Amino acid sequence: MAWFLVQIIGIICGGVGMVLTWIITIMPQWRVSILAENNGINGRIDGYWISRWDGLWSTCVNQARLSMQCNSYESQVSLTMDLKAGRILLSFAITMTFLAFIFSVVSFLWSRCQENSKVTRHCMRLTAGILYILSTVLISIPVIWTSSNIITKAYDSNVCRGALRIEMGEALFLAWPTIVFILIAGIILCCRCTCRQACVCQEDKCDYKPPQDREMVCMTSLPEERPNCNRRSEYI
């Protein structure tokens, strides 16, 4: 019963992580740039701000929180290297989390319907766990890369701090619970398969042999298969 509940927790964590992976991939709030709009008459900051959101697939411009316009990138040149890598790695992560979720659900349903196919269930469960763990690596690389670039630019002395402020977007903050959910699912599925594998192998290979009477064996077996049926006292 305990393993049953643990497996359900792993499947739920994997499903939540899969949905969050889709969300952070679509969200444009990876890098937020806030620009101060200067007044052309007197050259002062009039209090209106323009915020720009740069995501993996689109960029949005919000002026004074009144109007927002989102467009896809016109060319790959406008994308930085961290966002380009994020496109590729997050696309693989979405595919891997989807396959891992399917494998985990199928192995769970298979265990409820067929009790004899233990090897197939454990292989599918182990595959799902490995895919989840690899997905966390693929998600972590662009998230850490983009965050480090934003922090570096935020403390860059060459950037005018009064007119430009670069911040981490909501997608980067949401990526960390996504990694945690997927990692928990992968660890649960891999650990459950590893802990149960030894017991399954022993159950499949060990055959029970009941104790046999020596005289009965001598009477029922063939002459060439009979063991030494003479007692030790007969040799004295």
From TrEMBL:
Matches recorded under InterPro entries: Claudin (IPR006187), Claudin_CS (IPR017974), PMP22/EMP/MP20/Claudin (IPR004031)
GO cellular component: bicellular tight junction; plasma membrane
Function: Claudins function as major constituents of the tight junction complexes that regulate the permeability of epithelia.
Membrane-topology descriptor: Multi-pass membrane protein
Location within or outside the cell: Cell junction, Tight junction; Cell membrane
An example Gene Ontology molecular-function term: structural molecule activity
Source taxon at top rank: Eukaryota
Main location as per UniProt: other
Identification of the protein by name: Claudin
Family to which this protein belongs: Belongs to the claudin family.
Chain ranges passing through the membrane: 6-27, 88-110, 130-151, 171-189
Pfam families for the chain: PMP22_Claudin (PF00822)
Keywords: Cell junction, Cell membrane, Membrane, Tight junction, Transmembrane, Transmembrane helix
Organism of this sequence: Engystomops pustulosus (Tungara frog)
